[in-house]
Amino acid sequence: MPANRGAAMVHLRRTALVTVPFAAGAFATAVAFLLLRDSLPARMATHFTLDGTADGFTSPSTALGLYMLAFAMEAVGVLAAIRSAKSALTTTRSLVALACGLAAASTYLFVVTMRASSKTDGKSADLPIHQLGVAVAIGAAVAGAAWLVSHRRT
Q: What is the rounded radius of gyration, in angstroms, for the C-alpha atoms of the chain?
């Protein structure tokens, strides 16, 4: 029985390690929403074309719900990957780094989207294409930092 308990604790720890970044990202996005909600139009941009022009709009509360759903789907995807992993230690490090980077990039994009929408009338919005590059750079930097921290802890 004690060996079974140890395996359960390892499983719980791995689950927490890959879900906490998404919970933190969702929390940060919700805080940004609360700070920006008074400046958001009745319809805010939620989807952009490749040139940065908004082509999808919804209410701010629906947008926040979609953002939270995106974080949940990302967490489920990483959880599925970690549960199917053959090599626990190496894969856990990689997936924790992925989770941290993905959550950071998503948080940045969601906050930038809200900020772009807060500067509009709700009929049009622009999100410069370089923001996608910034999100990728932030995600890569956070993932790299998480990878380095995980190596130092072992």
A: 18
Structure tokens at 145: 């930092």
User: What is the token pair recorded at 80?
Assistant: 């599925």
Give the pair of three-digit tokens for residue 114. Answer: 């809200």
Answer for the pair 45, 117: CB distance below 8 angstroms, yes or no: yes
The number of residues in the chain equals 154
CA 89 distance to own-chain centroid: 23
Task: Report the Cα 114 to chain-centroid distance in Å.
Answer: 15
Lookup: tokens for 135:
């999100």
Among residues 154, 142, 139, 141, which one has the least CA distance to residue 93? 154
pLDDT digits (tens, 9 = 90+) for 76-104: 999 888 888 766 656 788 889 999 999 99
Torsion of CA 72, 73, 78, 83, to 10 degrees: 90
Distance separating alpha carbons of residues 154 and 119, to the nearest angstrom = 46
Is the pLDDT at 133 greater than 90, yes or no?
yes
Measure CA 132 to chain center.
Answer: 14
> Hey, is 48 helix, strand or coil?
strand
- By CB atoms closer than 10 A (0-12, 13-18, 19+), residue 38 is exposed
> What is the reported pTM?
0.86
